[in-house]
Amino acid sequence: MNGILIIDKPEKYTSHDVVARLRRILQMKSIGHTGTLDPFATGVLVMLVGKATRLAQFLDKDRKEYEATVRLGFSTDTGDRTGRADSRFQIPNPKLQVSEQKIEDVLTHFRGEIEQTPPMYSAKKVGGKKLYELARKGIEIERQPVRVTNYELRMTNYETPKENNDLGLWTLDFGIRISCSAGTYIRVLSKDIGEKLGAGAHLAELRRTKAGKFSIEKSVTLEKLEETVSAGKLGDVLISMNEAISHLQEVKLSAEEITKVKNGVKLKMNTNFGGGFCRLTDADENLIAVGFSDAAAEIIRPKLVLV
What we know:
Elements: E1 3-9, H1 15-26, E2 31-33, E3 42-49, E4 63-72, E5 75-76, E6 85-86, H2 94-97, H3 100-107, E7 112-116, E8 125-126, E9 129-130, H4 131-135, E10 146-158, E11 162-164, E12 169-181, H5 186-197, E13 201-211, E14 214-215, H6 222-230, H7 241-244, E15 249-252, H8 255-262, E16 267-268, E17 276-281, E18 287-294, E19 299-305
Helix pairs in contact: 1-6
């Protein structure tokens, strides 16, 4: 079996946990994913099954969408609710200082292209070391800011401030919806919004609703997937390799051309589109290969043969 599964990742699972669970459900080893989610986060995790693991570089995954809850009142060392509370930026009563309108005004500063400094608790590598490995040893190093883009950022709800009895601090939760470029850290965004409001903040909840073209509406839970596989209906939820890269232009191949592509032979074709990657399919819409079109030479070179 080859294709894409959109899994609605449950809380407390790592991306590696999901891979291990899928291997047991599908009884196969060749399974990968296109991007991780923190264990406390839920939502869209794009899983690659069988030969589809070779398609990762061609998938449309540059844009992500999230629904998140930001908690004002204190920050944490990890930037999310799993970390230790840092009361340096606590506010005695956010109701007196942080109105709904003030939050709306601050959000305008984070729309469009912005700079973010990668958090220490992240998998980003600096000098060959993952930052979280250093952070766990109490080591903090300088990180260079990177440019990311928030295409959409809006507040979805605003809750009444309340006193957190465990910490003796007031907290205020509000929801945001974000559409952003790949590589955006929502934990950092939450912290930065808090600092702009003059208060500590951290990410309390995170749910990814879209990764590239793959949305939560097309997802399946692990429990539902087990039921589907047991009923012999995996095809109902498995996205074909051809559909997965449907953003690439399609070139239909004849039987003779398919034979050439299988042998890695370049094709001489009169194409009406510019150069770049394209999908090479048969008459039944099966993906035969991914090719690279040289528009000037009117040649398509097979780059990744899948049959």
